[in-house]
Design brief:
This protein has 268 residues and is mainly alpha-helical. The chain contains twelve helices and six strands. The protein is elongated and about 65 Å long.
């Protein structure tokens, strides 16, 4: 609870308020200008406007869920320390010589694939990256929801791009037209930029998920001991379908030490 209150007081609300204001501000612009949504609303065809507003609301709700939830912090209470040590003893007994578990200078012993985040001041399980836009880490607990958020957000952006384009008539271009449609044109440009970013993010994350690796492991393989010393390119890859199943459908935290190959651990 203390850590969560700390997260809420680190200025994260400024970023979250900016995200919320941008989402609803662009939505308001699309309804205030002569777009398809505006025309449907005026003509009493409420289905598409209501669906669009609902999707925007869902995307904002998912944003706050991903932003505020526990990304997979490695807890410090005695019960978890005891359970972790027992789990590691089992791993050691199964793999001889044992996998060399890394120690965090701040949090002491931490499980494989975890990393200490300097911004959050905590170790995060299956650390992917710290996202400044959500002011939170993306880790083992919230990574699946982060992907769902990106997919919903991308759907909203693509629809918003079509709607904004329907209200821009460049054949009537003039100084008066520019003044009248300035906010709609600005919103369209913002939507295009955000769409490109969302496509790149979602595509890259889906690729990494299909390989059962993370952004941190992909970018810093040469600095991570359990990858640098491993002869296999990716010791956690179990095939496309099992990787996707484990990522989206697993309800429990994974002891990644158990998946680390015995042959490679002997050279660690």
């Amino acid at each position: 609870m203390r850590r969560r209150l700390g997260l809420l007081s680190r200025g994260g609300w400024v970023v979250r308020a900016a995200q919320t204001g941008l989402s609803w501000g662009v939505t308001a612009v699309l309804f205030l200008h002569p777009t398809d949504l505006r025309r449907q609303l005026v003509e009493g065809e409420l289905l598409q406007p209501l669906v669009f507003v609902s999707l925007v609301f869902i995307s904002v709700l998912l944003y706050y869920m991903v932003s505020l939830m526990d990304p997979g912090y490695v807890e410090h209470n005695e019960d978890e320390k005891e359970s972790v040590s027992k789990e590691q003893k089992i791993v050691i007994s199964q793999h001889v010589p044992a996998v060399q578990l890394r120690r965090c200078g701040y949090c002491m012993l931490k499980p494989m694939r975890a990393k200490h985040c300097r911004e959050c001041q905590h170790c995060v399980r299956r650390y992917d990256h710290h996202c400044p836009w959500i002011e939170n880490c993306v880790g083992e607990r919230n990574h699946p929801l982060f992907i769902v958020y990106l997919a919903v957000q991308l759907g909203v952006l693509l629809w918003a791009m079509v709607v904004a384009w329907s209200g821009l008539h460049f054949k009537q271009f003039s100084w008066a037209w520019l003044q009248h449609t300035f906010f709609l044109l600005l919103s369209f440009l913002v939507i295009v930029v955000c769409t490109v970013i969302a496509v790149l993010l979602l595509g890259s994350h889906l690729y990494l998920i299909s390989c059962n690796t993370t952004t941190w492991e992909f970018m810093s393989r040469h600095r991570i001991s359990y990858l640098r010393k491993c002869e296999v390119e990716n010791p956690f890859d179990q095939g496309l379908f099992l990787n996707l199943w484990r990522f989206f459908c697993s309800c429990h935290l994974v002891a990644w030490e158990n998946l680390y190959p015995q042959e490679e651990s002997s050279g660690a």
